[in-house]
Amino acid sequence: LQTEDVGVDCQGRDDLSCINDFDALTLELDAMSLAQELDVAGTRGVWTRNWQSCLVNTVKFRIELSVSRLEYACGRFHRISLTARQKQAVGEYMVEEPGCALNAQQGAQLRAAPAALQACQNLAAGASCLFRNVDGLDIQGTCAAGGAGVFCDPRVCSDPAALNYYRDDDQRCFLIEAYNDCLVPADPDQNQPIADQDIPAACLNQQ
Prior knowledge:
By secondary structure, the chain is mainly alpha-helical. The protein folds into 2 domains: 19-101 and 157-207; 102-156, no CATH class. Helices cover 53% and strands 10% of the residues. Strands 1-2-3 form a 3-stranded antiparallel β-sheet. β1 (128-132) and β2 form a beta hairpin. α1 crosses α6 and α3 (79-96) packs antiparallel against α6.
């Protein structure tokens, strides 16, 4: 790991080790890959919720920096900047939507509820599930393997859903598009465009 400075203070400062646009893009793409690996581990019975929560906080911070950078480089009303803010809003809604801000104690109680086990009786780990708690509220979650079998693990917050949205091919392709179409023209001396052979096939098919 290497610590690098961020912010407008980096402009023209040779005494600071500042993250550049390409390094920021690489960091975000790596975070997408990590989110996918955590999701796979979760379907195999590994408890990943704490790591997912940590990654969500990291991603939220990184995305805000990146969106601010796009707005600074290309203008707030540039097509890329507007799309970036819209995508950011969707991800933040998934984390902060009402009913998902349960604390750890509430989450543990919900996981222990008989209805949580019943909701996943015929489902495999990783499947989406829904059960009704004692207060009559519908609780959404993901089937997870545990000591008592496969149970409906409530979304103590919507971290898994937000990470699944974040690592989707559409978001991956948009990051590359934003770099090539906004940041490269804004600073061609520093930023080199990503060549077609280095762009995922799914993104090329969208062009």
